[in-house]
Amino acid sequence: MGAKSQAARPRAGVRIAGLGLGAAGLLMLLSGCSIEGVGKAFGNFGWPSRGVSLQAHKMYDLWIASVIAALIVGVFVWGLIFWCVIRYRKRGDELPVQTRFNMPMEVLYTVTPILIVAVLFYYTAIVQTDVDKLSKNPDQVVQVVAFKWQWEFDYRDGMGKDANTVASTVGSADVIPLLVLPTGKKIRFEETSKDVIHSFWVPEMLFKRDVFPGSARNVFEVTLDKEGRYVGRCAELCGTYHAFMQFELVVVSPDRFDKYLTAKKGGATTQEAMAAIGFTGKEAYAVTTEPLNTRRQASSWNQSNTVAAGK
Fold first, then answer.
1. Residues of 214-232 as b/e, b for ≥16 C-beta within 10 angstroms?
2. Which family does the entry's similarity section mention (predicted)?
3. Taking a C-beta distance cutoff of 8 angstroms, is the pair 223, 54 a contact?
4. Measured between alpha carbons, how far is 253 from 232 in angstroms, rounded to an integer?
């Protein structure tokens, strides 16, 4: 019995070492691929895309790397579980050798999770610090004003409450507001609400920021690096028409943005300014979403009111 047990132990060690080498080999294989490539190959592991800002790219990379690390640990643990199930399955009535404790193993499964959590915390703190970082001289300041149940975007000539609004866009029940911004520039957002808590959310930016009423302002910066048009929403339940709080982010080149802002400063409407940079017809309005058909807009509502008034 003792000889058999001693003979089994080297084989067990070899198999465990083999599983460890397999996991290490998988890690080396994945490290040779780009994070973005691995993410695309597996559907971004639940995220909508890699994002449209430099900050979003870092959050995306952190997410994909964390999932890959979790999968490697999971595969290793699953391998050990199935190996134990098969290797130590019941083969008779004889009781196997009982081991009260295994100090190296206990140290291993205590220290390893601590190291994993420490590494994840380290990289999370770095990315979070970078995402929250504010520059001393942003290229453009936008004041986001939320109210039941629409958005106002004010282009400012400086930071803080003492700055002046040089151009503004306000949404309505009939027209989705457009937030036009340039690529490659540091955009500073200063958020405020006129009533309750709302939330500024563009899914392709991979994060949202709450908009608080009162003097407290949520301030953050992004640097957009991909032109396009992206839907924006309120992500905080704020009342009856919460679902109607939509807007569209329009990311253009710096030259087109300068022309747009010049047109707005000259008194042009948002649609006229959009036409000045090449967005004409329907493209001068939101293309990623449209106003919801409210009861105030529906003909059936008007007809029922007319009938009720006649009665």
1. eeebbebbbbbeeeebbbb
2. Belongs to the cytochrome c oxidase subunit 2 family.
3. yes
4. 20
Give me the residue label for tokens 């460890």.
20
Taking only Cα atoms into account, the Rg of the chain, rounded to an integer number of angstroms, comes to 29
- Bridging pattern class, strands 246-252 and 178-182: parallel
**Helices 54-87 and 103-132, axial angle in degrees (round to 10):** 170
Nearest to 138 by CA among 69, 190, 185: 185
pLDDT for res 5? 45
Look at strands 186-193 and 140-147 and give their pairing. Answer: parallel
The whole-number pLDDT of residue 216 equals 77
C-alpha 85/C-alpha 79 separation (Å) is 10
If one compares 27 and 270, the residue with the highest pLDDT of the two is 270
216, 258 contact by CB (below 8 A): no
**Buried b or exposed e, range 133-170, using 16+ CB within 10 angstroms:** eeeeebbbbbbbbbbbbbbbbbbbeebeeeeeeebebe
Mention every residue, 6+ apart, whose C-beta is less than 8 A from residue 55: 130, 131, 205, 206, 207, 222, 223
With cut-offs at 50, 70 and 90, classify the pLDDT of residue 45: low
Q: Is 311 exposed, middle or buried (0-12, 13-18, 19+ CB in 10 A)?
A: exposed
Q: Class of 140-293 per CATH? A: mainly beta
Spell out the domain ranges in the chain.
Answer: 2-89+102-132, 140-293
Count CB neighbours of 253 within 10 A.
13
